[in-house]
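Worked example 2:
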Amino acid sequence: MSAVRAGLPEGRYGRSADERADRKLKIIGAVLGAGLIALIAWFGYAYVVDQDVSGQLTGFTVTADDTVDVRLEITKDKDATAVCTVRTLDTYHEEVGRKSFTFGQRQDDMIKIVTVRTTARATSAELIGCDSAANS
């Protein structure tokens, strides 16, 4: 009896169409993936570089039914003027106070405690955001 071959001899007829298609898809996927990573990196870099003012709320104290002391950490360029907006909320998460503060001191980093007046007793405070006075 003779042996029956299962397929074509290897290497004799070149690559199959499936192998060529797989290779093309791998190359296209790698190029698109690298492009996506580069785009994300570019957007991230542009976001960080464009921010010359940033702030963070590090704590608050409800001092009375109509006032809240808020502790802010502000990072800015020495020549920049920062405008930060803080709001306070009651137990139902309704806004009971909002105030914008301007920081023009000639220093990079600062910690400030500011007072926000409220219309009812506040239970929390949050920093809405900080921006450069030129962008406000």
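The beta strands are 53-64, 67-76, 82-89, 95-103, 109-117, 124-132. The first strand starts at residue 53 and ends at 64.
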